Amino acid sequence: MLHFKVSDREQISAVGSFLTLVLALAAGMVVIGFIFLLCGVNPLFAFKKIFSGSFGSIYGFKETITKSIPLILIGGGLALVFKAKFWNIGAESQLLMGAIFGTWVGLNWGPALPAPLIVPLMFLAGFIGGALWGLIPAILKLRFAINEVISTLMLNYICAEFLTLLIVGPWKSPKKFGFPYTDDLPASAILSLIPGSRIHVPTLLLAVVAVVVLTIVIYKTRFGYEVRVIGENPDAAKYAGIDFSRTTMLIMVLSGGMAGLAGVGEVAGIHHYLSYPDSISSGYGFTAIIVAWLAKLNPIYTIFSGIFFAGILVGGDAIQISLGLPAATVDIFNGTLLIFLITGDFFTKNKVRVLFGGKGLIHG
């Protein structure tokens, strides 16, 4: 009779960890290839279309960078909370709440203030909005022991409906011919773009600086040490006198706030008004979960993983047009890769032995 024995892996080299990551990605790609085959599409042709659509032209690459901005911001924040084993699945709603707060500031204060003042205020408001929304599941867990996966996930739906209520109700613009949009942001509240693209420069710079600073915080400060200890060994953290409640609330303020910054960037940099949730975000809050895992929970690596998954989003649009595949194809692609990345991470940290009749057969 077969039995499986799982034990902690004492140590794995950087090379071994990297090879595990590569194998996990390769295995995920193979499974995705089979899915393409089941859809009647040549997998090699589909992969070529995806990556040529996102990296094979100047236009595609510019669109890839545009979509990578929110993924880098949100992925960096998620890398922080995941380090502490706090499973924030609510970055999508934290992005939307940041968009709501930032839009309110832009619409109400923008006409009276110049760009050097209103733009920082919008980003500050967006950070506060995302942070406050992120604090809710942290408090629910600390005060009532409510699982954060459930609370953060449910808050996504609440925030989406709240945003919809605003744009069809009190914030609906009388100038939009009946469409459920707010008024356009004033010119002073609109972010500058790289000419010939939709890349909003202030948010891109903010994203890069934020993940660099966050990486330094995680690996070079006492607070970062406390975050890592809580994630690796909660009992040891309590024994060392680490304030679990304070640290949990702080990491959710930072994670939610970074998602809120992304929300401001999407509204002020691309749309210029508030509209339906799925127009503001292309599922960035969920895709950023995979971005954080591919980055091995290191914020600075989310720059590269964010660009990679942004390329999949852009390439996914290309295969919908050229191959006639449904929009859900991108979700299947991303979900499959996440499963294999988590599996690879499991084997990085654990050894698995297959036992037959009490004797070991296979080591993994």
From TrEMBL:
Keywords: Cell membrane, Membrane, Transmembrane, Transmembrane helix. The keyword Ribosomal protein does not apply. It is found in: Cell membrane. It is a multi-pass membrane protein. GO terms for molecular function: transmembrane transporter activity. Its main location: membrane. One of its GO terms (cellular component) is plasma membrane. It comes from the Bacteria. The chain crosses the membrane at residues 12-45, 65-82, 117-140, 152-171, 199-219, 248-270, 327-347. InterPro entries: ABC_transp_permease. This is ABC transporter permease. The lineage of its organism: Bacteria, Pseudomonadati, Thermodesulfobacteriota, Desulfobacteria, Desulfobacterales.
